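Here is a typical sample entry:
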Amino acid sequence: MYDAEPRLAMVSSTDEQRWHEALLQAPVREPQLRLWTYRAPGVVFGCSQAALLNQARSRPAGCELVQRSSGGGAVLTGPWMLSTSILLPPDHRLLAGGTVTSYRWLGVLIAGLLRDMGIAAHALSPADVRGSTADPALGWACFGGLSPWEVVVDGRKIVGLAQLRRRHGVLLTSGTLLARPDWTLLCDTLDRPAGDRAALERRTTSCEEALGSAPLVEGFASALHQMLTDVLGVHPVPLSNPFPTHSVAA
């Protein structure tokens, strides 16, 4: 059974997507929270990227390939990323105000945690995004673009957000770059030109780059878990485990 401890699970990208789907099959009665890191690299394609996924499958890949039900660009997951999954009832107070506003509290919360660590992070307002100089040629990659309430440091993306709305509930997800991702692996997997790798490095940053060393994933997860449970107002209730995971003490 799942419970509120441990706070961090080490999984594959497929495990994470299976958890999302399993929990959205039935009505979400109470907020559910999970924090993840990854055993190995993976590429998670958006729901409209089936063609890219099929092309990637036709080439030798150095990472796991999986498609999610939410939109957006391809996400490179791996040991460098700390992800959160938050399931909310459709009528939850944090979802009031519409689709874009639903992200605001999460982006602001993670940005605040990063500032507490000494990183000059802030969540982008819709006006900030309209005034940004994001390169549309990088729209195939989640971290190549900017959306409202995602988190940047000096204009460089460090936290990506996504959501999936179903009749039974709403899933909010985030991915924070604790260390430098392997953008070469992502571009090679999708057969992208070398210029895209350089562009992703310019458009993104990580805690490691900002601080000089990557924070321990367990410590970051523990602090984020506490902040999230305080905002949600309840601790996650026990859940049936739909797949085996390796837990990381937090």
Observations:
- The chain has one domain: 8-248.
- The chain has eight helices and eleven strands.
- Confidence is low (pLDDT under 50) at residues 1-5, 236-250.
- The domain at 8-248 is CATH 3.30.930.10 (BirA Bifunctional Protein; domain 2).
